[in-house]
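Protocol step 4 of 6.
Sequence for ABC transporter ATP-binding protein (Halosolutus amylolyticus) entered exactly as in the expression construct, tag removed. Do not edit the line below.
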Amino acid sequence: MTRTDSTTDETDIEAGEPSADADDTAAADDSDGRASEAVGTATPTLSLSGVTKRYGPTTALDDVSIAFEPGRFHGLIGPNGSGKTTLFALLAGLARPTSGRVDAETARVGYSFQEPRYYPDLTVWENLAVFRGFVDDPPPESWLDTLVEELRLGPAEHRRADELSGGFRKKLDLGLALVKRPQYLLLDEPLADVDDYSRRRIRSFLESYRAGDRTVVVSTHNVAAFADLFDRVTIIVDGEIRADGPPADDVVGQYRDALE
Ligand SMILES: Nc1ncnc2c1ncn2[C@@H]1O[C@H](COP(=O)(O)OP(=O)(O)OP(=O)(O)O)[C@@H](O)[C@H]1O
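Step 5 output, structure tokens:
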């Protein structure tokens, strides 16, 4: 468990070389003493407590507390600029809070953000295999076949990543998020650019992925695309949580009301 307490650091999402997952960052946290291993925690948690995140004069998150429970399909809903990506970056260990506390076992967190990361000159399969090589205790290689099948990556399996269409790039990034079969899967707009047929397959795959103690957190402003899957919804506006709990029968209406 990596616990990141309040700092005044303004570290942002790391740019540059593709990285396997957030584990490297967690290791860096340990080495400079700004995070510590929590012991004796029975249930792995993913949570923020009283977290504020500022970028210079901009407050991206303002005193946010939220816990992501095992076995949930959790919707994080908010308009552009509301703080969703920032919240994910904190949970993935890619950024530090300005104040407050982040509890995240980053080795169990997989993520796909809006900017895909992959090795451009490797094929889809090679990317999946390389990222699998970064994982300490990887699932069997057959898991990669499952991902290719379920994410409808087959037609592009042997094509270079930099030659892929936008939709296939998105699906490859989803695959990279899933390579280590994470307990917590954080997905930022996972269906953007994806064709209708693939959408249906990916939606039902994600629905089944939540089984057991796995948690899927989807960040989106396209509420309708996932409304029937959510069993918990957090609405975030201007860096503040406006609603957090079981979804209303009409999630789209619930979101509209929160924006007014
Ligand atoms: N690196 C940064 N430097 C300065 N401001 C930033 C940075 N990253 C985010 N912000 C600001 O923080 C606020 C929250 O941004 P964030 O990207 O978290 O929102 P979002 O909900 O993910 O938006 P979108 O739906 O458009 O992706 C915005 O005002 C944004 O301009």
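Step 6, annotate. The helical segments are 23-32, 84-91, 124-133, 142-150, 166-178, 196-209, 251-259.
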